[in-house]
Each structure stands twice: as C-alpha cells, then as structure tokens.
Amino acid sequence: MNPFDLSGRVAVVTGANTGIGQAIAVALAEAGADVACVGRTPAEDTVERIRALGRHAEIISADLSTIEPVTRVVDETVERLGRLDILVNNAGIIRRADAVDFTEEDWDAVVDTNLKSVFFLCQAAGRHMIANGGGRIINIASMLTFQGGIRVPSYTASKSGIGGLTKLLANEWAKHNINVNAIAPGYIATNNTAALQADEMRNAAILDRIPAARWGDPADLGGAAVFLASDAASYVQGHILAVDGGWLAR
Ligand code: NAP
Questions:
Q1: Has 155 been annotated as catalytic?
Q2: 15 CA distance to ligand 1 centroid (A)?
Q3: Ligand 1: distance of its center to the CA of 208 in Å?
Q4: N or C: which end of the chain has fewer CB within 10 A?
C-alpha cells in the first residue's frame, strides 16, 4: 500500500499549459492520476507528457477571467474522464504598478481570476464532491498570502484571500470528506516572475534572501501537490504549505 498512490483518481488542474500548473499536472499523473488540463491556452505539451506516462489526459478550454466556465469545467471533466476527485486551482495572473497609480482594471482583472473564479470553481467542484463522497482541493497561494510585497496590491489581496478562503472551505467541507489546502510557492522561475528575474537588482536581492540560494523550479511543487492530493494527507485540513526554499523561515 502506497499512501501517495493516485491511481484511479481524476484531477483538474487549471493553467496547466505552463509553469507550476504544468509541473503539478505531470506530477499528479506520475503518481497515477488522470488529468483534465484546463485553461485558455491549450495544454498540448502537458497532455502529451501525461499520455506518455500511460495516463489519460484531456484539454478543457476555459477562460477563468470570469466565472462563466466553472460549471462546464466540472461537467466536462466528469463526462470525458469519468469522475472528479482532485481540483488544483493554479491559474493566476499578476499586475505590477505603484499603489498610488494602480488602476481599477488591474485590480479587477487579478482579483476576478485569482480569487473570484477560484471560489466559484471550488463551489462547482465542491457540490460534485459532496454528492460523490469527498475529494481534494488544492489552491495555489503565494508568499504574499503571508507578506505584503510591493507594487502588486491586487495580487497580494487575492493571494491573502486565498489563504482565508482555503481555511473557510476546510471548515465547511471537512465533514464531507473534502480536504481543502493550499500550496504557497516561493520564488519560482516561470512566466509570472520573468520581470523579477530580468531585474538585476531585484533578482540579486531575492536570491540573497532565499536560504536554498536558488529560484525554485516548477517541478519543486510536484511532491507537495501529490501529498495533499493523496491518502497520506487525509487528516490535513486548511493548511497552507510553503514550498519556498526557506524564504519564510528567514
Ligand atoms: P505562469 O507561467 O504565468 O502560468 C499561469 C497560468 O495561469 C497559465 O497557464 C495561464 O494561462 C493561466 N491563466 C492566467 N489567466 C488565465 C485565465 N483567464 N483563464 C485560464 N487560465 C489562465 O505562472 P506560474 O508562476 O506558473 O503561476 C501559477 C500560479 O502560481 C499562479 O496562481 C501564481 O500566482 C502562483 N504563484 C507563482 C509563483 C512564482 O514564483 N512563479 C509564486 C507564488 C505563486 P496562459 O498561458 O494562457 O496565460
């Protein structure tokens, strides 16, 4: 008996075409899960990698800047993959500007994608999981779930909101055998952080603060996702698991 085995389970991963979402989708498949790769850019490379592992993978097109697709994502997953056991809310965006200049458009775009759509996708999946005896939800949080950051007000608000939402849903749904937790990545080398990596001074300051002395690789998130999706985490609820090379310990 391997408590990390995900054979026979079906996972939905949003934003699975690149970065952290792609790495998590592949890690869940390596642990045995079939995966619905949800996003606005077709996750062709991810699906290919999952199928090469002998697992089933499907692309589900959805623009999560509004909540319009959330029910369809759940329905299509069940229709095409047979069930839905694990939801990973990974899709997210960031906008950078000084707080004094920050626009309503930059506020709404980030909060709608990173927080509002996450809640309503949790709700759609949660209804299905309650009816089917349980499931796992993993939200992707951030260091800015714990800290303030600078020049990213809507991102900090959305990721701080993810922390609270994760705990609220755990409180309401633990009795339904649904485990709701979050992963807080540290500084991971992806499109999301390309501007920081390219900024020589910010890059040096960030590296100087990370005890592991390197940017994280998206694959560094895989183990945490498999753990939280697996039977090994069946008594873990409302937890925000930092995978940050020690950033928060500093
Ligand atoms: P990324 O490479 O930019 O990936 C973001 C993903 O979200 C992409 O698949 C993107 O799709 C998708 N997405 C964005 N808006 C969407 C929309 N409206 N509808 C559907 N999908 C949408 O960045 P990443 O670093 O892997 O980020 C993944 C998650 O980790 C985000 O929630 C981010 O906030 C979080 N995170 C990242 C870091 C880090 O250091 N990289 C740290 C903490 C938290 P497209 O390719 O089509 O844009």
A1: yes
A2: 6
A3: 25
A4: N
